[in-house]
Write a structure and sequence with these properties.
Elements lengths: L6 E7 L6 H6 L8 E6 L6 H7 L4 E4 L6 H14 L4 E4 L11 H9 L5 E5 L13 H18 L11 E4 H6 L11 H11 L4 E5 L14 H22 L25 E2 L2
Parallel strand pairs: 1-2, 1-4, 2-3, 5-7
Antiparallel strand pairs: 3-8, 4-6, 5-6
Length: 266
């Protein structure tokens, strides 16, 4: 709990057996009330590791739904557990759980509605192992997005985020992709609907064979999706087009069905 607000950490998992325990052990349970792990039909023993750790909220997708589909299950489950603050932490140990206190507090005191743990703030992105092509792509896409979305964020592509309950209940997240571009769409939506976004510096940690990373081809597809999302945002702001992902009538997460997306393992 933070100031009587329930803090839930969600972990979208895919083939995370090697790093799940290390990540989980560093979660600060003096502030975190519950942990939700959603296994997206992993091919390794992620599920078995989660059970051995004693996680009480495990969901397994019988078929792979994609990174965005995984997050939808994560957030639906967290909200159904009564979360006031939801923090997405990747179980591949790419992001340190030690920032959870800071991220939760910035939401909990009402300073921001959404917090991003930025790998670009500071000087350690490349030193921490971020591939050069990803760094260059990150900087280019961020500049493009800041221009079209009217913000000044250091990056839009970190997977380490904290949300207030209101953000996740308000945004039409069911209109978003089930693929990687979900990460970018949710930020564009948050900006469109006027939520306050803050950033904190996060050390970069890429470990070969452990840290999740999409291929160059998938990175290009993601980059094109980012450009498309930004253009949609600007066109709707200008009144030239209407898109469901930026509509107040768009489909929101269905909390009445619980997780509703997979099979509970425990």
């Amino acid at each position: 709990m933070f100031r009587d607000q329930k803090v839930v950490v969600v972990m979208p998992a895919y083939n995370a057996a090697k790093t799940l325990e290390q990540t989980y052990r560093e979660i600060p349970f003096d502030i975190v009330d519950s942990v939700v792990l959603v296994d997206d039909a992993s091919q390794d023993n992620t599920l078995e590791v989660a059970r051995k750790l004693g996680l009480s909220n495990i969901i397994r997708h019988p078929v792979n739904r994609g990174y965005g589909g995984n997050q939808k299950t994560c957030y639906t489950t967290a909200l159904s557990l009564g979360a006031d603050i939801v923090i997405m932490l990747h179980p591949d140990y790419q992001y340190t759980p030690k920032l959870i206190h800071a991220m939760a507090s910035l939401i909990g005191v009402g300073q921001y509605d959404l917090i991003l743990a930025s790998r670009i703030l500071g000087d350690g992105a490349l030193e921490g192992g971020m591939p050069l092509y990803k760094y260059i792509g990150n900087r280019f896409l961020t500049c493009f997005e800041n221009y079209l979305l009217g913000k000044k964020l250091s990056e839009y592509h970190t997977g380490y985020r904290a949300f207030s309950r209101k953000v996740l209940e308000t945004l039409p997240l069911e209109e978003n992709s089930d693929d990687f571009i979900f990460d970018n769409e949710i930020l564009a939506q948050a900006i469109f609907f006027g939520f306050r976004i803050g950033e904190i510096s996060c050390p970069t940690r890429y470990i070969a064979g452990e840290s999740s990373s999409i291929s160059l081809r998938r990175s290009i597809t993601y980059g094109l999706g980012v450009l498309k999302t930004s253009i949609k945002f600007r066109m709707q702001k200008m009144g030239l087009k209407h898109y469901p992902i930026f509509s107040s009538r768009g489909r929101r997460l269905n909390l009445s069905s619980g997780s509703g997306r997979g099979q509970a393992s425990e």
